[in-house]
Amino acid sequence: MDITAIIALVIALALFFDFTNGFHDTANAMATPIATGAIKPRKAVALAAVLNLVGAFLSTEVAKTISGGIIREGAPGVHITPEIIFAGLIGAIVWNMFTWLRGLPSSSSHALFGGLIGAAIVGIGVSSVNFPSIVSKVIIPAIAAPVIAGISAWVCTRIAYGVTARRDPASGQKLHQGRAGFRIGQIFTSSLVALSHGTNDAQKTMGVITLVLIASGLQPAGSPPQWWVILACAAAIGLGTYAGGWRIIRTVGTGLTEVRPAQGFSSESSTAAAILASSHLGFALSTTQVTSGSVIGSGLGRRGTSIRWGTAGRIALGWVLTLPAAAIVGAVAALVTGLGPVGVIIVAIVGAAAIVWMFVINRRQRVGHANVVEVQEAGEAVLFPPRKRSRKTNRNPNGDVQ
User: Fold this and answer.
1) Are 160 and 180 in contact (CB under 8 A)?
2) In angstroms, rounded to a whole number, what is the distance separating the alpha carbons of residues 242 and 244?
3) At the N or C end, where does the chain have fewer CB atoms within 10 A?
4) Closest by CA position to 182, among listed 163, 195, 167
5) Under a CB-based contact definition with an 8 Å cutoff, are residues 113 and 91 in contact?
6) Mean predicted confidence (pLDDT) in 369-394
7) Could you give the CA distance from residue 32 to residue 297 in angstroms, rounded to a whole number?
8) What are phi and psi of 175, to 5 degrees?
9) CA–CA separation, 380 and 258 (whole Å)
10) Are 152 and 274 in contact (CB under 8 A)?
11) b/e string for 80-118 if b means 16 or more Cβ within 10 A?
12) pLDDT digits (tens, 9 = 90+) for 272-329
C-alpha cells in the first residue's frame, strides 16, 4: 500500500479514536452534575465539549509521552511502521466501542496503550516496548491516582457536610439549607474537570499522530506535535464530547451511589486536581479511573449513603481487562496486517463492520439525554428549600379551615 495512503488512513483512524474518547469520557466531567440536577444534560455536554477543546491547547507533555515513551520508535533495531500503529488503533477503538455499548466506564487511555503494545509486540517484537516508561508513567499512576482522588474526595465530602451542618434549636434536627450553593459550585468544578480532561486525553491522539509522522520520516524523533495536529485532535475530542456518552453517564452518575450536590462538588474538585497534576508531569492518566475513584470516595464520605459495590466491581473488572483485551485485538490486527495491503484492507473492513454493528445495537437500546437519569432520582438527589406559605390558616378541632 502507498505510504501516503496508509498515513492518511492512520491519521483518520486516530481522529476517530479521539472522537470515541470524547463521548466515552464525557461522563468524567458531567455525570455527577447531571445526576444532581445542577445542569441540564444537553447544556452539560455542550459545555464539556467547548472546554475539552480549549484544554487540548494547554499542554503537550502527555503527547510527548505517547510519541516517544511507550513505543521505541527510533531506537536501534526497532522500526515502528504506520501499519503497526493502524493495528493498534483498531484494537483501541473496538474495545472502546464495546465498553461504551455496555455502559462501562473503562479507560480509553489504557485501550490505546494496550492496542499499541499488542500490535508492536506481534509486528516488531518485545524489544519495541519501553516497559520502564509504561510502569512509571502508566501502571503506577493507574493504581495511585484513583486511590488518591478517592481519599481526597472522601475528605472534601466530610468537610463539606461538617461545615454546612445546621441544627434546629427547638428540635435538634439537622438542617441542610447551607448546601444549596454546591449545585452552583458544581458547574464550576465540572467545567474544570472537562478542561483538565482536554489537557490529558486529547494529548494521547496527538502523540499517536506524531508517532505516525516520525515513523514515516516526516518528522524528527523527539519533536512535539505540529500545530495542525493539535487543532485536529482538539476538534475531534470536542465533537465526540458533544455527542455524549449517555450510557456511561448513567453508570457513573447513578450507578455507583446516590450523588448529592455536596458530594458532586467534592468529587469533581478532587478529579480535576489529580488530572491537572498528572498532565503537568506528563503522566498518561486514565481520567475514567480517577473519576470513578472520586465518586466512590465522595459516597463513602456522606453518612447514610450506600455504594453499589456490584457496579464498582464491574468497573474494576473493566479496568483490569482493558489493557490486555485491547492488546489482544491489536495483536490479531497486526498479524493480519502483516499480510500486506490485502491484510490492511481486511482489518479495516472487519473493524468497520464491528463498529457499525455496535452502533446498530445502541440504536435498538437507546440511552439519550431524555432518559440518562430518571426524573425521580434527579429530584431526590437535590434538596430544594420548602416553599413559604402565602397566608396562615387555622383549623378547628374538626379539621375544617377557618
Assistant:
1) no
2) 5
3) C
4) 163
5) no
6) 42
7) 13
8) -115, 150
9) 9
10) yes
11) bbbbbbbbbbbbbbbbbbbbbeebbbbbbbbbbbbbbbb
12) 888 777 777 766 667 777 877 888 888 888 776 667 777 677 777 877 888 899 999 9
Question: Looking up cell 485491547, which residue turns up?
Answer: 326
The HSE-up count of residue 185 (CA atoms within 13 Å, CB side) is: 16
